[in-house]
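pipeline/complex-builder :: batch 7 item 3
reading input block
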Amino acid sequence: MTVTYLDHAATSPVRPEVVAAMAPFSGPRYGNASGPHRVARDARRALEDAREEVAAMLGAAASEVVFTSGGTESANLAVTGVLAARAAVGRPAGSVVCSAVEHSAVLASCAAAAAGTARVQGVPALAHRVVPVDDQGTIDLAALAELLDPGVGVVSLMLANNEVGTVQPLAEAAAVVRQRAPGAVLHTDAVQAAPWLDLPVLVADADLVSISAHKLGGPKGVGVLVVRAGVPLRALLHGGGQEHERRSGTHDVAGAVGLAVALREAATGRRAEGVRVEGLSRRLGGGLTTALPGTVPSVTKAPVLPGHCHLRFAGVEQEELLVLLDDAGVCASAGAACASGASEPSHVLAAMGVPPDEASGAVRFTLGYTTTADDVTRALEVVPRAVARLRAG
Ligand code: PLP
């Protein structure tokens, strides 16, 4: 069966260049990058070359790049590590502020800190404040200003949303944070933005930046937290002191190399690729809203990532639609999924004020570097048939 993969925001196919670059590290270049001899030195050279390249792609210094196991770990390290560092020098941890549409990696880290469950890291219970968004998923800058004060320890605001694709006004938000909470550390989750946006420019105002390789055509289980010079951060993982005491554990050299290549490949021709994929997303969204009355795009008035096409189909349950699409070889998702793969009620759509009965008909189609015009043509054949079948009962 032909597979039409429209779930790039969940993960993107691994790029052939990444596979090729990683291969030697599953074979002859097996060294431990922390060791004293030539085999180790070979691994360390590859690791540090990857670090240099990742740093350049993110507008950071090499010393600011901390390799992690992915976006989830990076976000946890950002939120909890900053609070723990404050506690370690006897400062009050301060409250945590994040937007209502953050990925669960950020929301749950903030909630854990607020509940005091991060106390093992020396983080006492504190307040967790949530910034509302408008009906497009854009953070409310006035509400952000209201929620900030000099006692805030961490602010976490994503650059682009994983479900609906809204791109946030991060520079404006950062200016508000600097003015209202000058002692706060600003983290941005740039995991979804990374394949599409000019990161060195857009994350320049953030103190901490999270990236995940598998959203870029890189390997799963590899990520980065950029930690700008001078930002206090305490490790979550203790051990051999790798990554300058910020993240212990024997290095995944292959993963770091794969991430560097994925970032480079995504950056090559990014603008033209964004235009191409945005054209395909528009054709898909326009075609489906025309073919299926009662179909509403979730974001129409805010900047949105090129690959995102998030639609709400009236009179349809997303789970049932996704099964029919899967049967026909079209892979999409509901946007918010738990570990079992089942859809969860979307906290993003709830924050945007979408009523639950409308949210339950939402499907996220996400296009990426492998998506072709034929994929869109196929989806335009399959989706209307499936929706019509469900609507007919
Ligand atoms: N942040 C965002 C916005 C995401 O979309 C994801 C993954 O879906 C993550 C964080 C977590 O990244 P990882 O899968 O690498 O743990």
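note: Residues 270-291 form the longest helix (22 residues).
queue -> next item
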